[in-house]
Design brief:
The protein has 118 residues and is an alpha+beta fold. Helix content is 16%, strand content 29%.
Length: 118
Amino acid sequence: MATERLRLENIGFGSLMERANAHLDDICEDVIRRPHLKRPRKVVIEVAITPDYDGDAELNFPTIDWTVKPSVPGAKGMQTKALVKGGAVEVELGNVDARQPMLPGAENVVHLTARKDA
């Protein structure tokens, strides 16, 4: 059985690096698609090695657990401020900072209404 020193490139027969590169492509696309979101995008690689020592045979066969996770702003949800006005919920379009107040009389307001069957 041929072996070589453990490296990121050979974990999972190259699957770890393949997934990392795919997620890197995804976060780069997100930076291009949503440049107004100034929060960082990340690819997190986690490798955990747990020893499995057989004292009788004096052999150690560690188990390698690994994950590759992307982190993109808004993937777990975001928040938007709204205003209840005239029986409707209104949100300002084009305002990327949810902490900014609504601008009265703005032309870019969307009206949301509750569904009758909800």
